[in-house]
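for ur thesis appendix - Alpha/beta hydrolase. copy paste whatever u need, i formatted it the way the template wanted (i think)
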Amino acid sequence: MFKFAAAVALAGALFSGAAVAQPAKPTVVLVHGAFADSSSWNGVVEILRKDGFPVVAAANPLRSVANDAAYVSDVVGSIAGPVVLVGHSYGGQVISTAANGHDNVKSLVYVAAFAPEAGESVADLAGKFPGGTLSGALAAPVKLSTGGVDLYIDQAKFHDQFASDVPAEQAALMAVGQRPFTEAALTDKSGEPAWKKLPSWFVYGTGDKNIPAAALGFMAERAGSKRTVVVDGASHVVMVSHPDKVAELIEEAAK
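the 3d part is after this line
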């Protein structure tokens, strides 16, 4: 009798929903843009990890599209299983290139990000619509011994330009720790973008002063965005000020 009861219990467990193995969640790879670093994703990472997603916040070199995309491509190539690739600002141009050739990349998420067409640069797109004020907020360029220059946002203008909806104390720390962006990367032309083959999602704020909201909306529509979330008043760092909205969209793309 005992053996029969045990067998029935085992059979019930094997065929119950609890015993059915759940597919592993995709790894979310986060790629920051110019004047930011991987810590800009901290709020989003907390939510994603709490919800059971493996996460990698890649350190985007910000040297050139080819260089940066190759680095992110290597990161993606090291991951077993499906990947959701997420880019902020210039990071959007990077993921549009880095995803090419990787069958494990299932979706793209653009967070206040550029999604260039082949032959376009971020400089082209930033100037396509009025409203951007980045050029007037830049500090004096830093000349590099290897040639070219690095660009920074003037620390005194960083809060208003880059992170107006972030507390002033936090924005001041972000300004000091900002990562420089080469002028060459600003004008690098894109190759064939991965958003033509992969589903994409977009989120951005109406208070973005780096990339005008009109430009972000244009790129989302052109890429055939599955869903576009527009956050009223959000700055260029919408993932810092509204990590919940960004994480929610990433999780939607992960399904």
